[in-house]
């Protein structure tokens, strides 16, 4: 699905798309991913829902301008404004990885109205960020200057570690494509260097305030954000439903697409009957 619409926000260009009819559902991707990871799920739900896909600035097809802040703080504020721009009833948000933190910040700090939250293997609690994140944060200019072939090899190895199975050539192309070329390479390391636990520390004490239905879904074999975080997160949110997806890693969308689609369909249908 091409992200063919554009929303301008503080000098950034946000690419987005919409299809289907029915209650609105907004998919929020994580890092180092893009909205392409959610496309098959948006397609599956578009027969009953109006689905929105969008790429955060610094990711996917959105602008990757040097000097733009791509932190969770900025992305959360942007999402709140983007939801107002789209209008309509409060949407269901389906989120992954840092997309969870972005959605939680948009709702808790910027007053974005939502009908429900689905938090799939999300960044929401400290500690997060791998040793690789810390290394890039200490030496971003070194990584940005890597020869293109070394950067691509590192990138392929990095994203492959998020899945439990072997990724296909097409899947790898989809995941690494936005980060290739000079602009993509700089953007890849820039968004890692912008990672800051302070942005989840700010909202973590407020999870008990959430008063909308929340689904916490997690791959039991996630090595990037282990499944114990799912139990802890669900326990912090009043009435949260916990659903574990056996054998799936952090890239649960690729490891267990049928199980995740079924879980999301059950969740949304239970709220819209």
Automatic annotation (TrEMBL):
<protein>
    <submittedName>
        <fullName>Alpha/beta hydrolase</fullName>
    </submittedName>
</protein>
<feature type="domain" description="AB hydrolase-1">
    <location>
        <begin position="23"/>
        <end position="257"/>
    </location>
</feature>
<dbReference type="InterPro" id="IPR000073">
    <property type="entry name" value="AB_hydrolase_1"/>
</dbReference>
<keyword id="KW-0378">Hydrolase</keyword>
<dbReference type="InterPro" id="IPR029058">
    <property type="entry name" value="AB_hydrolase_fold"/>
</dbReference>
<dbReference type="InterPro" id="IPR050228">
    <property type="entry name" value="Carboxylesterase_BioH"/>
</dbReference>
<dbReference type="GO" id="GO:0016787">
    <property type="term" value="F:hydrolase activity"/>
</dbReference>
<dbReference type="Pfam" id="PF00561">
    <property type="entry name" value="Abhydrolase_1"/>
</dbReference>
